[in-house]
Amino acid sequence: MKRITILIADDETAIADLIGLHLAKEGYHVIKAADGQEAIQAVQTHSIDLAILDIMMPKVDGYEVTRQIRETNHMPIIFLSAKTSDLDKIAGLVRGADDYMTKPFNPMELIARVNAQLRRSRLLSQSSAENRPVLETGGLAIYPDQRTVTLYGEPVDLTPKEFDILYLLASYPKKVFSAENIFQQVWGEDYYEGGNTVMVHIRKLRKKLQEDERKHKLIKTVWGVGYTFNG
């Protein structure tokens, strides 16, 4: 059985060592990177299952590392950062992270989040193996097995969470999902302050789908209730 490999990218050696110690106790194989450039090289040369990234790293920051990872890989990414504002957290999630923890942190909570993200990733992989049908409407085509989207034949570059939101809505056309429903199903976590996060993802998703230019909107807001796919 393949051993799960986790990348820790943080220029604070003490923090990386602490996380690595706890992950090793859980049976994970750990690779460490002291800056963003090393993190990118590690992803290119190793089979990484999950990445824990600091944001403010030397050479290349965590945002750029995430952008480059997302070009080829849908692995779970957890930001672990000293940036603590709600806007920082939303920015991290919008840029492609699956979870966000702030420093100082409880190592056991981080391990719990790592385990949760790996479980979710495993379930997504299993469901992808079911050969789910392509969803097509209004020039939009969603390929769930490849996790890709095209609009009038042109590829649409979506983050993993944007794809998950679109696929969820498109799988149940006309059904109205509240922000709470979307957050719980896409992020797999209890809903607390997730409304803004969902709203920001929906806004970016609409822009990428060129909704401003469409007479027939694909994602419709039902005011006071939530969102629905109008395909």
Automatic annotation (TrEMBL):
It comes from the Bacteria. Gene3D superfamilies: 3.40.50.2300, 6.10.250.690, Winged helix-like DNA-binding domain superfamily/Winged helix DNA-binding domain (1.10.10.10). One of its GO terms (biological process) is regulation of DNA-templated transcription. The modification 4-aspartylphosphate is found at D54. One of its GO terms (cellular component) is cytosol. Keywords: DNA-binding, Phosphoprotein, Transcription, Transcription regulation, Two-component regulatory system. SMART domains: REC, Trans_reg_C. Residues 132-231 bind DNA. Residues 5-118 form the Response regulatory domain. InterPro entries: CheY-like_superfamily, OmpR/PhoB-type_DNA-bd, Sig_transdc_resp-reg_receiver, WalR-like, WH-like_DNA-bd_sf. Pfam families: Response_reg, Trans_reg_C. It is found in: Cytoplasm. Residues 132-231 form the OmpR/PhoB-type domain. The keyword Nucleotide-binding does not apply. One of its GO terms (molecular function) is transcription cis-regulatory region binding. PANTHER family: REGULATOR OF RPOS, RESPONSE REGULATOR SAER. This is Two-component system response regulator.
